[in-house]
Specification:
Layout lengths: L12 H11 L4 E4 L4 E3 H17 L6 E5 L4 H12 L3 E4 L5 H10 L4 E4 L1 H4 L8 E3 L20 E6 L10 E5 H14 L8 E3 L4 H9 L4 E3 L2 H4 L2 H11 L3 E4 L1 H7 L3 H7 L4 E5 L5 H10 L4 E8 L3 E7 L10 E2 L4 E5 L14 E6 L5 E2 L1 H5 L4 E5 L5 E13 L5 E6 L4 E3 L2 E3 L1 H9 L6 E8 L5 E8 L9 H11 L8 E4 L13 H5 L19 H13 L17 H15 L5 H6 L3 H9 L32 E5 L4 H11 L5 E6 L10 E5 L11 H10 L2 E4 L10 H22 L2 E7 L10 E2 L6 H5 L2 H6 L4 H18 L4 E6 L1 E2 L7 H12 L1 E3 L4 E2 L1 E2 L1 H13 L8 E3 L5 E2 H10 L5 E3 L1 H11 L3 H7 L11 E2 L9 H12 L14
Parallel strand pairs: 1-10, 3-4, 3-5, 5-6, 9-10, 9-11, 11-12, 12-13, 25-26, 27-28, 27-30, 28-29, 30-31, 31-33, 32-41, 33-38, 34-37, 35-40
Antiparallel strand pairs: 1-2, 7-8, 8-18, 13-14, 14-15, 16-17, 17-20, 19-20, 20-21, 22-23, 24-25, 36-39
Helix pairs in contact: 2-3, 6-7, 9-11, 17-18, 17-20, 21-28, 22-23, 23-26, 29-32
Length: 946
């Protein structure tokens, strides 16, 4: 047994966050795929939710949280603890299991949103987070005793629909968070991606002051979307299950993105030898860590992944007191170096619900070698305690297996099968499918030998009885089950491949096979079935969300055509998917089209509205520029504002009407009726929306930036509306010192520079903005009243940008590149004022192209600004500066986030403007850098933010 452990003194989980937030309330620490919140804003949101919980007398009660992985989910979690409630984070997407958890866990209040509440039938009091306001009269007295229960957790029993429940206190969780942070310290530039492990990866990041990015379920399970998110947000560390990592390693874009991580923690299941080898081959520069952790006892051990072929020896958590007992008798301990059951006790141990101990759920009282009785938990895993004090985990003791991250008992599945009227005998085996994942196969014998058996009906029935991970991916109907001499079922013979699989390799080359045949091949490989028909439903064949991700990757590999999980939901049979994919041409995702895009012909006689605008539609209304613009428009008399948003989770003034839309979708995701109604209503469109990810490939940004602009142009043409489109200096080739005037516009002139733009090393963002502008100039030539507004870098208060990251690198290293070069930028307010002026003017008195920028700031002036902020810097040649920064490692996070092409920000094109804002550019830059650069940063050193 490990040495006794003395609990350190800890605050409550929520108290630690409040202390951290008070250090830097303006620091952005929480980001989801819709918005960003600073520490002060998070505390305010927590207090709003907590006040409503206190009004419901939630203290001491179990509060269920059922939301997507958003900022509100995190705020709700802390608010429950703040109000003295016990948090029960409910699983998303499995209503039947969720309902049973609510009943078994004695959940008494539910925090949710409209989307999730509509899918769940409950009589519980519901607090809807969407429109929640603070109850001002409610007095909140934050809980301060860390010994109180904090969480109601649901363990692996969810696989059979009978989840087991355990309670954990604040101290157990804080022990875990503190140990992880000590093992893998956060660095100043760290950004943490969070999803599948709930609050266990969000909380330590927030307590350390590291920004946490909340990824949606659809993102974490789609390798391409995950790759884009890692790149877009500059994520440097995250946790995944080995199964999810295995899926990502089959996608080249995901491998490229994950290669930028500094730390990747694997948890939740064992790491197969084949995956271990591929990790070493595909992610050689990423620190990979294996964490052995269970809900019932928190963290047990962890260690860096060794080279393939070497055993994984894990360092024990100091608060996890680990013993090894006999496999057949968990109360009989074995000597050091002997394999046996892993038994865990200590201060991290959870408390079972009252019914769980009676059901023998793994908790028991252990007599230690020192003759002490302690509460302990039988993990069900086998392991060895080695002489050096490390732990080697050998796998499961019982026949339970882990399917897609969930523990499944094949014997329970067999018992369920035998309850089905048409099954006389049943046996469940496991095998590795063609994707290398463990899958279940059910072998059944009908009561009558010649009976016609409906396999699809049985699959449907099983889905109603079991958790999706416990539903066999394949059901084999047999006349008899093979037996051993003892009379027991010969599982070894059952697990052997059948002869019907022999024809799988006798296929024509993919080029000569139809798309539907290639899609069926992908179905067979992912689902490990040989009897796929054209009209078979993927979901009815047992495909779940993780299998859907694998299918999308496999379909793209087989056909060269892009498939996403939403596509699969809309058409989940091979025939329907083939019809959907036929319209696509196989392309490489990273390719940039050689030819510029062509705009479809607009109506011959465009209706032109005259006079002052009455209704203005703003796309991208939730961005920093969009918000400034909407704010100015609301104070303009006689103008109605329509703000296009991706969800209704934003607060706008009462006189602003929001309309949910998405640039990446056909018709912006609107129905024909909605599209026509908005076209009849608006007379001016200000197109601000765009995907500004400067490291994503062209293909990832095309839908939002090019196709989205095409759709907006079509809307403007149908409405006869004036269109203002915000473009960028990025549409020009990267050449230091080159200046582009407002007279340079039009399709022919701009398209002539497209090849130079590509050759200059421009990123996908630049190319998509260039192509979007080409569409705009074609529309202008066809008679659409249009104005293009080009801008350089936007300096948003309190929000870091590429300019600020470069300035920090120079300040830290004490060296910057010598001139002559300039930085050019503009603030959101200046752009918004210019857009408002153009929108309110008549069509004829404004140029079709306007450059909105502040006066450029020279290299010498930038050096003076840095010096005034206490960061004295010397100058060197550009190559010498780049080399010095790379050697010192200061540019590493920049290269990770933005790539090497434009890291230094000194070779970008300049915009000439007829008029500049009266705002002093040097003063603006000084104030901006003062806001985003830590005051403690000194030359040659970047001190960690606390």
């Amino acid at each position: 047994m490990t040495d006794s452990y003395q609990k350190p003194q800890f605050s409550c989980i929520h108290s630690t966050l409040l202390e951290r937030a008070s250090i830097d309330a303006n620091r952005d620490i929480l980001i989801d795929e819709e918005r960003c919140l600073n520490a002060g804003g998070l505390v305010q949101r927590i207090e709003v939710i907590a006040s409503n919980l206190v009004a419901q007398k939630a203290s001491g009660r179990v509060v269920g949280i059922l939301t997507d992985n958003t900022i509100d989910a995190v705020a709700a979690y802390y608010a429950c603890l703040y109000a003295g409630a016990v948090v029960a984070t409910l699983p998303r997407g499995v209503p039947a299991v969720t309902s049973q958890i609510i009943a078994n866990g004695n959940v008494s209040i539910l925090l949710t949103d409209r989307k999730n509440s509509s899918a769940l039938q409950t009589q519980l009091p519901v607090i809807a987070l969407d429109d929640l306001k603070r109850i001002e009269k409610t007095a909140i007295a934050p809980v301060s005793d860390p010994r109180l229960q904090a969480h109601l957790l649901f363990t692996s029993g969810t696989t059979t629909g009978k989840p087991r429940t355990v309670f954990t206190d604040h101290i157990g969780s804080m022990l875990s968070h503190a140990w992880r942070t000590k093992l893998w310290p956060y660095e100043p530039h760290d950004v943490v991606g969070c999803n599948i492990f709930g609050m266990w990866d969000v909380v330590p990041a927030l307590h350390a002051g590291a920004p946490a990015v909340l990824l949606t379920d659809s993102t974490i399970r789609d390798p391409l979307r995950l790759a884009a998110a890692v790149t877009r947000y500059g994520i440097t560390r995250m946790m995944l299950t080995p199964t999810l990592l295995d899926t990502c390693l089959r996608c080249p874009e995901a491998v490229t993105a994950l290669s930028r991580l500094r730390l990747l923690v694997l948890c939740g299941e064992g790491i197969s030898q084949s995956l271990h080898i591929r990790i070493g081959e595909q992610l050689p520069c990423v620190r990979i860590v294996n964490l052995y952790s269970l809900s019932e006892c928190h963290d047990v051990a962890a260690g860096d992944l060794p080279p393939p072929g070497q055993p994984m020896h894990l360092t024990l958590a100091p608060f996890a007191q680990v013993n090894i007992s006999k496999e057949q008798d968990r109360e009989q301990l074995v000597p050091e170096g002997t394999a046996g059951r892993i038994i865990v006790s200590g201060p991290g141990l959870a408390k079972p619900a009252s019914t769980e101990r009676a059901e023998n759920a793994g908790f028991f009282t252990l007599l230690t070698q020192e003759s002490h009785r302690v509460d302990a938990y039988d993990t069900g895993d086998r392991g060895i305690l080695l002489p050096d004090g490390t732990l080697e985990v050998l796998g499961r003791c019982e026949s339970n297996v882990k399917i897609r991250g969930m523990w499944v008992a094949p014997t329970d599945v067999e018992a369920t099968l035998l309850r089905y009227p048409g099954v006389a005998q049943a046996c469940v085996t496991t095998s590795n499918n063609a994707m290398g994942h463990l899958s279940l196969q059910a072998h059944i014998v009908p009561p009558e030998e010649d009976a016609v058996f409906d396999v699809d009906a049985l699959h449907q029935w099983l889905r109603d009885q079991l958790h999706p991970a416990a539903v066999p991916s394949r059901i084999v109907v047999r006349k008899t089950l093979p037996l051993l001499a003892s009379g027991k079922v010969d599982r070894t013979r059952l697990a052997q491949p059948q002869s019907e699989a022999a024809d799988m390799d006798k296929k024509l080359p993919s080029k000569t096979r139809s798309i539907v045949e290639q899609v069926k091949d992908a179905f067979q490989k992912v689902l490990d079935r040989r009897d796929i028909k054209d009209d078979d439903s993927f979901s009815k064949l047992g495909g779940d969300s993780l299998a859907a991700v694998a299918l999308c990757v496999e379909v793209e590999r087989c056909t060269g055509r892009r498939l996403t999980p939403p596509d699969l939901q809309a058409a989940d049979t091979p025939a329907a998917l083939a019809d959907r994919l036929k319209s696509q041409e196989p392309t490489k995702r990273s390719d940039t089209p050689l030819q510029p895009p062509l705009l479809s012909p607009l109506p011959a006689a465009l209706k032109k509205r005259t006079g002052s605008p009455t209704t203005i539609l703003v796309t991208g209304a939730t961005g920093s520029l969009g918000k400034q613009l909407v704010h100015l428009l609301t104070s303009t008399a006689g103008v109605k504002v329509l703000a296009m948003v991706r969800s209704n989770n934003y607060d706008f003034p009462e006189n602003v009407r929001t309309v949910v839309g998405d640039l990446t979708l056909p018709q912006l995701g609107w129905s024909d009726a909605t599209f026509d109604a908005i076209a009849l209503e608006v007379d001016t469109i200000i197109h601000v929306g765009a995907d500004t990810n400067i490291v994503a490939p062209y293909s990832d940004l095309h839908d939002a930036n090019v196709r989205g602009t095409d759709t907006v142009i079509g809307l403007a043409a149908r409405a006869g509306a004036k269109l203002l489109m915000v473009s960028s200096s990025a549409v020009f080739p990267l050449h230091c010192g080159t200046r582009w005037s407002e007279s340079f516009h039009g399709f022919e002139r701009l398209s002539a520079h497209r090849a130079q733009l590509i050759a200059s090393g421009a990123d996908g963002y630049s190319l998509t903005k260039h192509d979007a502008e080409l569409l705009a100039w074609q529309a202008c030539e066809q008679g659409l009243p249009l104005h293009v507004i080009r801008i350089p870098h936007i300096l948003t208060p309190n929000q870091p940008s590429r300019l600020s990251h470069v300035a920090k690198a120079w300040a830290a290293s004490g060296i910057m590149p010598e001139g002559p070069w300039h930085w050019q930028f503009v603030d959101p307010h200046t752009i918004a004022v210019a857009l408002l002026s153009i929108a309110l003017s008549s069509t004829d008195d404004t140029s079709p192209l306007v450059h909105v920028t502040l006066a450029p700031v020279s290299a010498d002036e930038i050096q003076t600004v840095l010096t005034s902020l206490g960061h004295a810097t010397g100058m060197a040649t550009l190559p010498a500066c780049t080399e010095a920064l790379c050697k010192e490692g200061t540019l590493a996070p920049l290269i990770t986030r933005y790539g090497p092409a434009a890291t230094m920000c000194v070779n970008e094109p300049m915009l000439e403007a007829k008029t500049h804002s009266r705002t002093d550019a040097t003063d603006t830059l000084c104030r901006y850098l003062k806001e985003v650069m830590p005051a403690s940063m000194l030359a040659k050193e970047v001190k960690p933010q606390r």
